[in-house]
Amino acid sequence: MAAAKLSPTANLLRRSRLFALPQALDLPPEPPTSKSRADSDTATLPHPIRPSIVTPASSLARGDWGFKRPLPAKSTSLKSSKPVVRINAIDTFEHVTDFESAADHTMTLEKFQELHLPMSLPAKVNYATSIVPRHNSPFETNVDNTETSKPINEVGSKQFRHTGPWLAGLSEADFNAYLRRVQKDKPEILRKLRDRFTAQLNAERKKRAQDDGQDLATLAPIQVTDEDFQRYIKVLRSDPASLGPVLFDLLDLPSPPAVPSDRIGQVYYQSPGTKLSSSEYAVWGPPSTHPSAGLSYSRSHALIYNHPNNGPQTYQRPVEARILRPKGRFKGKSAKAIAGVGGIAVEDVNAMTFAEQGAPAGLASFDATIPGGAKYYVTPFRASVDSYGRIQLASFRATTAAKVAYGIQEYKKPSTGPLTPWMSVDEFTRDQQRIVPRLDRPRTSPLPISSQEPAQKTEDVARNLMRTLSSS
């Protein structure tokens, strides 16, 4: 059979790379809070919403990016050695192409891929203990399921997506719209409920017959009448504890967060055990993307880091982490330290496990004397993506054995003591120039304790002298 001929316009659109670009995603939702928030319009988003576009070097020299008009070299090739752009609007009212640099997410992806970390399902990481959450790959058969997957009906299967919405994250307007949609589908829901009731009666009858020793092949299926079905609906309506699991199953709703302790003794619509692949999804909602987000497709940590000179290593090369905000008190509250690892802001990176004498320089408080800013080396061991599409990275401080293999030494503050015999005058002067004096601290006398003692009186000196002459 001959293929249908396409018109020139259809053939052009079919071969166009521009029309092959996916649509832009929605902006990440703002957290529901009544407090005032100071957000920036130019800040990097938690996850990209538009694709990154590159062009060959031959086309880049002409400013040709495959759009209606060339892009200026001052904002692309002359600004970065790896120009990558994202398009906000191909043609605006002013007849210009609205674009911006996409190097923020592109470079973050490249840095993350250099960590060689597999993606894990979200789990709480407590740095105050030595217990590390077990790695659970989101690509396993029992958890990598949606509502249309084949293994979803198997025993112990989990899923990361439901057809119904997460009720805890809906606003009042969204919840009312969902109720109207449910009322529109009421006949279909009642049919599913009747099939569920019939299957339940048949299962109970089969169980009784099996206990009595009857032949199961001779059992006829139960025919549910309308009166029995209406009586079953009334029983469910009078018992919220029994109606809750039925509603969550029929509407395919994700499990909500845990019930507060002050409502445990009250009557409420109970939910069944969560079917989500991670318990964190029941607290913060189902993931907006696949749990891996396409960052890595490795399923385990089964990698050997082979050093060219020292052979196989237990850990890979340590990664340098920059301290973005040290520990301290901000707005009257004790704040956790924030560090940047591979372009990812990580909260509380080992800030609780460091002893005061072994903490990196600049972690306890801001230190402007450190050249290049406060940094230290870490070993990332776990990465996941939360419900809002943000990368959650966990790491430990790099051990001495991991740093020795690569010849890495962390920065140590120079000694502020007196000039030592092995220290030159230039080195001593340079180190003393880095010290910023504290004017709000009471000054102490630099003289030794022996020189601060009061001088002896003249009479005591004369009396001691006469005693010495008489004894001689």
TrEMBL record:
Positions of region (Disordered): 23-55, 433-472
**Can you list the GO cellular component terms from the UniProt entry?**
ribosome
Q: Tell me the domain of life.
A: Eukaryota
Q: What ranges does the record list as Basic and acidic residues composition bias?
A: 433-443
Positions the record marks as coiled coil are: none
Query: Quick check: keyword Ribonucleoprotein in the entry?
Result: yes
For this protein, the record's InterPro entries field holds: Rbsml_bS1m-like
- Asked if the keyword Coiled coil belongs to this entry, the reply reads no
One Pfam assignment: Mit_ribos_Mrp51
Q: Which UniProt key words apply to this protein?
A: Ribonucleoprotein, Ribosomal protein
Protein name in UniProt: Mitochondrial ribosomal protein MRP51
Which species?
Aspergillus lucknowensis
